[in-house]
Amino acid sequence: MKRVSKQVHRIYFFIFVLIAVCAASTSSLAGRFGTDPLAPRDEWGLLHQSPSLNTTDFDRRYPLRVFYHLEWSRSLTSDPAYVGALQRDLIRLGYYCGPIDGIYSDEVSDAIARLQKNYSLRVTGTLNLPVRRALHLP
User: Fold this and answer.
1) What CA–CA distance (Å, rounded) separates 138 from 127?
2) Average pLDDT over residues 128-134
3) Are the C-beta atoms of residues 68 and 76 closer than 8 Å to each other?
4) What whole-number distance in Å separates Cα of residue 135 and Cα of residue 121?
5) Residue 41, SS3 per DSSP
6) Beta-bridge partner residues of 41
7) Cα separation of 121 and 134, whole Å?
8) What is the rounded CA–CA span in Å between residue 67 and residue 8?
9) Does residue 109 carry a pLDDT above 90?
10) Residue 100: which of 69, 57, 46 has the closest Cα?
């Protein structure tokens, strides 16, 4: 019986050390990968440098992407930082030509409808999960 408990303690210790090493490595990569979940990134997850700042860059954001996954689309359209990231990605793909102001307007809705049509999605003009996945937004 004591032998089994020693093995269990060793396994728990190994898991604890593994978690500690992973936490230390992710904190050291925070400068390279950044802590802003809505920042523009390339295919490797590295941050891009943008030539200019937008007003939505200074809005309050969640610290982790997982919090955006838990939000409903209606509440995300009222979040200026999220709508700014949405507008930025729609501009990058050529669907939106307006300002990045964090306001969910009719132009943004039209751009989403064009994106849905080109990606063979159900055209609703609203922000939904397939649109978020197509734009790689949380």
Assistant:
1) 12
2) 88
3) yes
4) 13
5) strand
6) 47
7) 10
8) 34
9) yes
10) 57
d(CA 14, CA 82): 39
Question: What does the pLDDT look like over 38-63, one tens digit per residue?
Answer: 666 666 666 666 667 667 777 777 77
Scanning the chain, the segments in alpha helix (DSSP H) are 2-28, 30-33, 65-69, 73-76, 80-93, 106-118, 129-134
Report the alpha-carbon angle 68-70-74, nearest 5. 75
CA distance 115 to 18: 42
User: Alpha-carbon torsion 108, 117, 71, 36, what sign?
Assistant: negative
* Beta bridge partner(s), residue 47: 41
2: tokens are 């004591």
